[in-house]
């Protein structure tokens, strides 16, 4: 079972007593800050819940699976999400 964005917005609005429009605006702002900060190489940490950071990937040699030809894969960036202690504890208590 997965929760999509509209279900998340509805749940947060109900729990907080705010309108869904207000909650949706806040989520938009949070995700925008995450995107710009992580793109600039900043780490975002919400203590106990999660950490988001940009990681660097070195250039490497790969292989085309269809032809077997060797190809060069350029260096790049990725995103790393790390669960915090409160999130891990809440998951380990569920059965």
From TrEMBL:
SMART domains: BHL
GO molecular function, one term: DNA binding
Keywords noted in UniProt: DNA condensation, DNA-binding
Pfam short name (any one): Bac_DNA_binding
Tagged with keyword DNA-binding: yes
Superkingdom as given in the UniProt entry: Bacteria
Family classification: Belongs to the bacterial histone-like protein family.
Protein name: HU family DNA-binding protein
